[in-house]
Structure formats: C-alpha cells, structure tokens
Amino acid sequence: MISGGRSLVSSPPAFSNDAKKLLICHGNTVSIFSTSTGLQITELEGHKALVTSVIVVPASTPASKILCYCWTASLDGSIRYWDFSVPELMKMIDIQLPIFSMVIPSLFSQPVESDEKTRDLFAYVSIGVNKQDKQPNTSRGQIRKCNLTKSCLAGGVTLAETQEPEFITICLFGKYFGIRDKRKLRIWHVPEKDSERIEIKKMRLHHTKTLTILAFHPTKRIVAAGDVSGRILVWRGFGNRALSLSNRLKNGRLMTYEDERPGVRGDDDADSCTTWHWHSSEVKLLLFSSDGAYLYSGGKEGVLVIWQLDTGKKKFLPRIGSPLLFFINSPDPSLSSISCADNQIHLMKMPSMEILKSIAGIKLPCSVPEICKNSFSGFVFDCAAGLVAVCAENYCIQFYSLFDDREISQVQICERNHQPGDELTVILTLAALSLDGCVMSTVETRLPEEGIGGLVSLKFWMCGSQIKDFSLSTIIYEPHRDSGVSAIAFHPTRRMSVSTSYGGDFKIWVGNQDIQQKDKMLQKTRWTCHAVGSYKKKPMTAAAFSADGSVLAVAAETVITLWDPEMNVLVAVIGDSLECHTVQFCNLFPIHFENISNGLPKGDDHQPSSDQFMELFDGFEAVT
C-alpha cells in the first residue's frame, strides 16, 4: 500500500543550529529538509504515533553549531533523543502517557557543555490522562515534570490539571513557560538550578474572553496573548508582586491599585496591560522577534501583522494565501519560517519578508456547498506520472506524488485572493485528466446571487513539461446552456473529450492544433464541439470511453447508452436494470468493449431489437 500526504503543520518545526536544516513533525516521523533547496534530506523514524514536539539542542559556542542533536515527543508516550546528522536514536524514555507538548527549559538557560554534567535534565510535558468517570468537567490534561536523565516522571509532581491537554510555550532563554487555560494564562518561573524537590513559582493572568495562544518576550518580563475575538493583550512587568504601600503614595494621596496598573485585572501580577485589535477572528499565531522590538501575529485572514512593541504601530505581509499557524525564528537572523493551514511551510528572508522556498504537503480538498456535492470531484489520478491531482482551496489543483511524498506543481484555475469569512461564490466542481496526463479539463461554477448571475465554465489545459506546468488552452462558457456539467471523460488515444449534463445532453469535444511560424514554431491547441447527443431528454450523469476508444458509454439516469463517438451514433442501450439509482462510472471504466456496432441491424432509432440486445449482453452486469 502506498501512503503519503501527511500533515506538515500539526506542530511547530525547529531549525538546526546552523539554520541549514528544518526539522518538521510529519506524522509518526520527523522529516528533515534543506533550507537552501526545500527538499527532504532524511527522516527520524521510530515513533508509533503522531510526533507532537521536536526540540533541537542548542549550540553552546559558535564552533559547536555542527552539533545535530534533538529531543522528540509523541502521542505514543515516548521521548526520544536523536543524532539527526546520521540519523541515529541515542536514547528512549517511555512514560506510557500520550504527550501533546514538551519543553526543556534548562537546555536554553544553561550551557550544554557545562562542568555540571551530573545535573539532571528535566522536561515539562503536557500529557493526556484517561479518566474512568468521563464526567463533562473532568480534567483530561496535566502538566507534569519528567526527569530525562533518570528516564521517568518526577514522582508526585503535577503542575496543573486542564480540561484538555494544552500546548506549552517557553521563553527564549528558558526562564518561563506557560499555557493558556480558558480565560487565563498560567505561567511558571523555572529556577536556575532545577531539581525534583524544587517547587517552581507560578502566577496567573486573567482575561474576559477565551485565550488561544501566548508568547514570551525574549529578554523582558513581557507576555502577549491572543483571544478568540482577534484581540491581543500585552502584559508588561509580570511577576513583580504587589507594590508596597509607600510606593502607592503619590503627591500626598493614596493611588488605587487599578490606577497604578492600567489595564490589569484584579490582583494579577503585572505592571500594565495593553490591548491591540486588528484580527477579525481568533489569533492563531503569536511570536516576538528575536530582538524583542516587534510582535508577529496571524490568523484566519492569511495576513502576517508586524506590531511595533513600543508604539503599537503595525505593518502587514498580505496575500500569503492561507490561515497562519506558526512563525519560527532561526539561529540565522536573516531566516524564518511560517506554517500555514494549507499544509505548507514558507522559508522567509528577514527582514524583507520575502518567501525564498516553500515546503508543501498534500492539500485538503476544497469545501463545497451541499447543492454542489453531487457533481464535486475532489481528486483524480494521473496514472502516467503516478500523481494525484487534488482540487484544493483557493481555486487551485495540486499535483502531488505519493511515491516521493511531495508536491510537484500547482495550477491556479481561477485567480482569486484568500478571503476569510466570505461565502463561496466560485466552486471548482470537476477535474479530469487524459490518459497520458498531457491534457486537463476543469469545470468551475459561479453560484448565482439571489437567483441571478450563475455561470458554468469548462476549461481545457495543456501540459508543457514533466513538472506539470499546465497552461490554459480554451474556455467554454455555459457548455450545456443553463445546466451544470455532471462528468468529464477523455478518449484513451485521441485529443477527444466528452462532457455530460444534468440538462439531458452530452457533448464531444476535439482538440485541433494551430501551427504558426514567426521566428519559431508555436503550437496551440483549441477545443471545439464535435457532436451533441441525448437520450429521451434524460439527465446524463456519467461517461467513459472503452479501452480502444471505439465505444462511448453515457449514463442516462437508470440506463447506459452506448455510442460510436466518431459518428455520434447510438449503438445500444443497457435497459432499466437499475430502477432506483442514477448510474455513475468509476474513473477507470471496468468494461473493455469490442466495437459491438458491426453486424447489428438497426432501426430508425439506431437501437437493436430487444432479443438481439439480450443475447449480446447476456451475463453483463452494470456497475454503479
């Protein structure tokens, strides 16, 4: 069985110390990509379930940037230590509980090659706990401490219980880590010398709406959080406990607690709280720049917003084309990565925000309204090249190799920017490929607004190379008058195609090449209508050619009509053997027809008698 097309964006990726590699959680493995080419180099295999965290061990000196060690955690309950330059598994720890997130603060707060090599190394993990009572308010998540040196959970140390397992965020130098828990943030301060016996300090910050994400400033006690309404809150000076009474006297009068700490709710441990609002829906991405001067945010709009921390002024990187999930800085300040919901990771040149390379996984089929689901084809196979063509979001078709597990190309069927929240007005309903993969046909439907303005477009595309760079050849508006196109099929050997319609007809299209010579040969294929057919005005729901192309089968509700595609002559009809179901054909037509028209006497309607028909198709079983 061939498997491929796993998610690249289920968890944040990580850069190697020299920024030449990007480690990506890729299903049950960690795939390692080159940042210069965007191609996969190798992968770390061994986990039995989804990998949820990858942490690269930082270099303690510039000379040690060649070190290639990392920790990974998975839903299989294991934590693994790798040398990913080989790659080789160095150590495995099994805590027997699914790990949803993991941080290792001491990796960043102390040198890796220190003299204190005997000190234990601790990780903090967000785990899932199976509760037997399964009550609605039962906590299913815990934040636990794990001793990586002794390969076990720290006994009796549970930092927090949450209704669901939460993602853990850590600051750049490992002093603080935290989670969002409904309408509050839980933050822990990690001591310089961590041990199993030390109880780490904790604090909480509250909000009026459900929080979605948080980020720590790299050098200052500043934390930012986004909520479901699109607001961003920035708490400054968190962790400085209540001011003394003497400091609360100003100009001879007693200041209220709220006056001293603008924007801070209740007894929250922070000096001030500022609110910014630009996003129209929940904030999914939040990260401070490496120097702490800017805050990056993103969400459903597909726009990266860059906030100046001191002034609140903002600028934008628009038209990324998909909702944003993660933004990661690399050890090289000129390189970052941004992960998008369309299963794509962009490598970006900083600070210009220019996209250098893109690492693309397989895309999900686009969503369609209920009224169009009967005619929607989510994907087709290019058998000649071993590719799958997926009708994806933003009106494109992605050609993906399941063998190499990578994207080959994208074809933009309809030019349109990503517009979050807008109702669908154009739907890519059908796509079909010729047997050799050189011709593609697509159907896009523009939905009517208040019953006015609907339009169906049939397009033919020609492929110019093996990398599937299709170019538009012909556009046919309303190919079947006001009716929608139900199916498309290609002739196995000729430039011929058939489209069927719910309006009760089918049309045969042929491609003709125009050759012009102006300094060089220019070939252009245009497609024209060769013939039109119908059967008793019944809706035509499916079509397929025989293996040699001599017979065209078209389904007309519960019957299958057989035609000579060259002469457009009805050869035979497979009768009402299916009374309740509309006939549909699979992509690969299962019957290898002979040219059955030879020697059959035909009446005025070109149909053989019922006795001849039954003798001819004795034992034939229609496929639905």
From TrEMBL:
<dbReference type="Pfam" id="PF23769">
    <property type="entry name" value="Beta-prop_WDR75_2nd"/>
</dbReference>
<keyword id="KW-0677">Repeat</keyword>
<dbReference type="InterPro" id="IPR036322">
    <property type="entry name" value="WD40_repeat_dom_sf"/>
</dbReference>
<keyword id="KW-0698">rRNA processing</keyword>
<keyword id="KW-0539">Nucleus</keyword>
<keyword id="KW-0853">WD repeat</keyword>
<feature type="domain" description="WD repeat-containing protein 75 second beta-propeller">
    <location>
        <begin position="397"/>
        <end position="570"/>
    </location>
</feature>
<feature type="repeat" description="WD">
    <location>
        <begin position="276"/>
        <end position="317"/>
    </location>
</feature>
<dbReference type="Pfam" id="PF23869">
    <property type="entry name" value="Beta-prop_WDR75_1st"/>
</dbReference>
<dbReference type="InterPro" id="IPR057644">
    <property type="entry name" value="Beta-prop_WDR75_2nd"/>
</dbReference>
<protein>
    <submittedName>
        <fullName>Transducin/WD40 repeat-like superfamily protein</fullName>
    </submittedName>
</protein>
<dbReference type="InterPro" id="IPR015943">
    <property type="entry name" value="WD40/YVTN_repeat-like_dom_sf"/>
</dbReference>
<keyword id="KW-0690">Ribosome biogenesis</keyword>
<dbReference type="InterPro" id="IPR001680">
    <property type="entry name" value="WD40_rpt"/>
</dbReference>
